[in-house]
Amino acid sequence: MFDFWIILTGTLVAATSGILGCFLVLRKMSLVGDAISHSVLPGIAIAFIVSGSRDSLLMMVGAAILGLITVFLIQLLQQGGLQSDASIGIVFTALFAIGVILISRNASNIDLDLDCVLFGEIAYVQWDILVINGYNMGPAAVWFLGITLLIVLLVIGLFYKQFKICAFDPALAAALGIPVALFHYLLMGLVSLSTVASFESVGAILVVGMLIVPASTAYLLTDRLSIMLLYSVLVGALSSAGGYYFAKWLDASIAGSMVTVAGLLFLLAFLFSPLHGLVARFSRRRRMKSMTA
Amino acid sequence: MFDTMFGWFSDPNMRWILTGSLLLGLGSGVIGSFTFLRKQSLLGDALAHAALPGICIAFMLSGVKSVGLFMIGAILSGMLATFGIHFVTRYSRIKQDAALGIVLTVFFGVGVVLMTKIQHSGNGNQSGLDKYMFGQAASMMLSDVYLMGAVSVLLVLICALFFKEFKLVSFDPGFARGMGLKVWLYEQLLLLLTVIAVVVGIQAVGVVLVAALLITPAVAARYWTDALGIMVVLAGLFGALSGVTGTLISSTLSNLPTGPVTVLAATALFVVSIVFAPRRGLLAKWLRHRRTRKDVRSGLGVQTAPSMISQHAAERGAD
């Protein structure tokens, strides 16, 4: 059971992030996920200070609001003429700094540990059990993440066409009358929701890693968005299961191992993808040379 | 107030830490100007995370907690990371932002694995590793401050020495190549300096916030001027001011960590710049807008039009 819950939690994070990650990678906004995952920290801290409890739902709300504020501020600076990477960097470091100060001033003696928020400890997942009417419903995180995955699937499924056009050709989308800004904020809302939902149970690195790495791996393996989404989820699930056993074997961080395995899978795709891999690229070039020679 | 101020300067320990954070801010502000112009602002964030496995491996190999060794390990893995980012963007369809993200998270993931491995191996000497990662400016030892100060001075000197080359490489690599400049060499040198600035900064402000030292002062400086020389000097000044302010505030108020306060000081300078900068600031833009409207209304629009056009052209040319 121990193994099962952890791998399931990891897979749920991977699936949610993988789906959203595909759109981020295609829209060249991979690092927005990184920014959001760091800047939700003050949201968590404020929710904690206001309520005085570690109520997950309240923290999620606080964090999600901060996630949207982050996106809004980045957008604002960009519209003012600043490069996107610089806008991201300024906004998230400032918000993260505020978060660290709030936590170290108000919550340092309580159970809101900075290390834990950043690294997360997926191994603790099964001890936080959801109990309804005296029934043991399994780990609370699995429920949270499951619901998040459902929401993401629902929204993306409903507006798949719109998201697809916005990802590949925002100008065309605007010309077709699709409210591009609305879908931008919808996507970002989903990213901050899933970041926040995953955050508490698995920590920031795993979320950011799962947003970017499996989606990039999938991007090297196919040219079709639907298949890219599928591959991204599969690669994420594989990383989470593989990472768990890797961590068990090494006696080291589970979240770190999952990201490491995702990195190895990316390396494999980078080298050996039949479409876009390095080996295929070079053999194609060589064949072309021998044909012309 | 006066007593505390006197206290700062009479306490030799404090004096050294102040000097260290001043030099650190200066160095990263100067280097940050070039990374910002080369549109690599988030490279600092990636490199800071990528340093972790290097630090862990340095500790695993040597078994001692030495800042010098950590720095060598961090610089080596930082250089490996820049190589990885370059390689992935060059030889696949992955764009630079995703490549940056992949390297950042995977290196950090590997680092976390190594760090937990070290912790579980029961080596009692490892407790300093996480302090190193999260930055502890207040508990820095004198020798660390010497090292940071020396490295920062070196960074600034190298930038001054190769200013012309760095300028060409940052603005127009193609032209620089045409002039027979070894662009590749200077790009590598700039990358190396960035890695060094990041690695030095980690210890003072921590992994996540080190990116801010490179980005925020440089961007703030950009609002005030169009000349690279002035921008670099201003960025250095802003960085130094942030470092000093951060250290002073966190030492007078208890429970305030130095790194985040330093970053917020830099952010405050950025906000001041974005509002009050003479030509590109929001206030100036708003005043200009209002004046134009008034001129148009009072029938002076025709006369002012040419000057507006030239101003507009100047702005366009600056971007």
UniProtKB/TrEMBL annotation, chain A:
Pfam (any one): ABC-3
Membrane spanning residue stretches: 6-26, 31-50, 56-74, 86-104, 140-160, 172-196, 202-221, 228-247, 253-279
Protein's cellular compartments: Cell membrane
CDD domains: TM_ABC_iron-siderophores_like
Predominant place of localization: membrane
Keywords for this protein: Cell membrane, Membrane, Transmembrane, Transmembrane helix, Transport
GO biological process: response to zinc ion; transmembrane transport
Membrane topology, record value: Multi-pass membrane protein
A cellular component annotation (GO) from this entry: ATP-binding cassette (ABC) transporter complex
PANTHER family xrefs: ABC-TRANSPORTER METAL-BINDING PROTEIN (PTHR30477), METAL TRANSPORT SYSTEM MEMBRANE PROTEIN CT_070-RELATED (PTHR30477:SF8)
Family: Belongs to the ABC-3 integral membrane protein family.
Protein name: Metal ABC transporter permease
From TrEMBL, chain B:
InterPro entries assigned: ABC_BtuC-like, ABC_TroCD
Gene3D superfamilies: ABC transporter involved in vitamin B12 uptake, BtuC
Membrane topology: Multi-pass membrane protein
A GO cellular component annotation in the UniProt record: ATP-binding cassette (ABC) transporter complex
Top-level division of the source organism's lineage: Bacteria
Keyword terms, alphabetized: Cell membrane, Membrane, Transmembrane, Transmembrane helix, Transport
Keyword Transmembrane helix: yes
One annotated GO biological process: transmembrane transport
Intracellular or extracellular location(s): Cell membrane
Membrane-spanning ranges: 42-61, 68-86, 98-116, 137-163, 189-215, 227-249, 261-283
Entry function: This protein is probably a component of a manganese permease, a binding protein-dependent, ATP-driven transport system.
Similarity comment: family membership: Belongs to the ABC-3 integral membrane protein family.
Protein's recorded name: Manganese transport system membrane protein MntC
Organism: Paenibacillus lentus
Upper lineage: Bacteria, Bacillati, Bacillota, Bacilli, Bacillales
